[in-house]
Design goal:
Number of strands: 11
Number of helices: 4
Structural class: alpha+beta
Largest sheet: 8 strands, antiparallel, barrel
Mean pLDDT: 84
CATH topology: Porin
Order of helices and strands: HEHEEHEEEEEEEHE
Number of domains: 1
CATH class: Mainly Beta
Low-confidence stretches: 4-26
Shape: elongated
Length: about 230
């Protein structure tokens, strides 16, 4: 349901932007090619797959920063660093592992770091409002924080349960689209929706929330809706 809401919101934004492009046919923006650029964006990321990742980790606020250049007026090539920390739904996890006491739950977060190259195809480079398509390819690294249930009544905060999952890395892919708006010849703002798939079948968040043998692994997948700013030099 959360993923559907994000997709619907992104579609509304993109359709609104497309109508804006049509309305601005006479308001052209002459884009200078071969210009270096830096950008930063952030938004909301929603877990999608595997099911354990979707059900037991909360949406988060990812952060992206990058730099690149306009190769052609219609084509940008960029390098991007992405950071997202998905917090574990501690209450749901506590129920799932079968613990019914009053022990306090901490940890269990999943940090995903990605370094990738992206290619952005701009539909109408000379317009201020510019729909675009973007694809990315790079590498990712996932790190799990230990999930700890501790006894709050113990002076030493004795650990009742401590669980973790194996850290994984692999190939990161993404595909998405959005709308870029030129504020002037240097500054642009943009809104973007993309779907990320981190390729490694050994991604198994299940050991934190259940028995390892009972949970299947799979590629990590999540959707992101973000807004950002870009400046050219």
């Amino acid at each position: 349901m959360r993923r559907t809401q994000v997709i619907v919101l992104a579609a509304v934004v993109l359709l609104g932007g497309a109508s804006g492009v049509a309305a601005q046919s006479e308001q052209t923006y002459l884009r200078t090619p071969h210009r270096a650029q830096i950008f930063v964006d952030g938004g909301i990321a929603v877990p999608a797959n595997p099911a354990t990742f979707k059900d037991f980790w909360n949406p988060t606020l990812p952060f992206n920063i990058g730099a690149g250049a306009a190769i052609f007026p219609w084509l940008d090539v960029n390098g991007v660093f992405s950071y997202a920390k998905f917090n574990n739904n501690n209450n749901r996890t506590k129920q799932n592992v079968g613990y019914t006491g009053i022990g306090e739950v901490s940890g269990g977060s999943l940090t995903s770091i990605t370094i990738a190259a992206t290619v952005r195809f701009l539909a109408v480079p000379n317009n201020r409002a510019n729909p675009f398509l973007e694809v990315g390819l790079g590498s990712f690294n996932n790190k799990f924080e230990d999930l700890i249930i501790a006894d709050p009544n113990s002076i030493t905060q004795e650990t009742i349960l401590e669980k973790s999952a194996e850290n994984v890395s692999g190939i990161a892919t993404s595909v998405g689209g959005g709308l870029q708006y030129a504020l002037n010849e240097r500054w642009s703002s943009y809104v973007k929706y993309y779907y990320a798939v981190n390729l490694n079948k050994d991604f198994r968040p299940g050991p934190i929330v259940g028995e390892p043998a009972s949970v299947e692994g799979g590629n990590q997948q999540f959707s992101v809706l973000s807004i950002g700013m870009l400046v050219r030099f």
